Amino acid sequence: MDNAYGFTAYGGPEVERFLDLPLPSPGPGELLVEVRAAGVNPVDWKVREGMHRSFLPLGLPAVFGREAAGVVVALGPGVEGFAVGDAVFGSSARGCGGYAHHAVLTAGFTIVKPEGLSYTDAAALPVAAGTAYDSVRGLKVTAGETLLILGAGGGVGVAAVQLAASEGVSVVGTASGAKREFVSSLGATAVPYDGDDTADRLAAALPNAADAVLDLVGGDALDTVSGLMSPDCRVLTVAAPETAARFGARQLSRGNRAETLAELARRVRDGRLDPHVREVFPFAEAPAALRVVESGHPWGKVVLEMRTRTR
Hints:
Strand content: 25-35%
Order of helices and strands: EEEHEEEEHHEHEHEHEHEHEHEHE
Number of helices: 10
Helix content: 25-40%
Number of strands: 15
Radius of gyration: 19 Å
């Protein structure tokens, strides 16, 4: 049996449980790893709430977690390029499953962990940093251009600011007043969104308009900045499809490529990207770790570290 943390029904925190489940088996294109660290993300509680049920069907009980780092203990049929004993990190297969002592990862979005990259930093990369990398690449921003990031203080935004700024892109980002100094330290001009004069403050920070916009807030955020976009502005958004269509925007999506992870690992090792793992919880405190993320106010990434079995 394997110890995991998951949920027994769709709903709030009351449906969460530590679970003893059969040891998972890797299928074709999958790896079974002994987990050393697992990233905690907003998508985890959203899956528990049932928000993704339409496109992510799960059998219940289900295990939390979309990203993990650990040591390979078994290979699924047809998997090449890995060996038992390899230290790896990547994306959980079948939608979730990282909050456990053993997890199945998708081989195509998993790589061997480079020397010098910690398990906790590695486990923080696939979801938020991976989304940020694919987004910045998708917007095709280049040195000298201006990128506006709406929601720069969140997990994806923190990585996107660093990735763009390291390429010589001028970054302006909205964040809560409490995170203004933090976002500025990443290389962005931080504009607090507290109060009714956000648009005026953004206009002052963007005298020549934005060449690209990465909207990580959704809702009516794009309407707020519509007058600050250049005529050929490229836009990626998490807003509803109808809102995206009004701005000629593409919806945010992920490439889920091993090449993305390899590039992120290189950038962490050479200092161009800091995963900002601010809080590491032992597996026994998985509920507390998820509450920090569900509160909507974490500073940087939250990671679980596997140490002892929990009943």
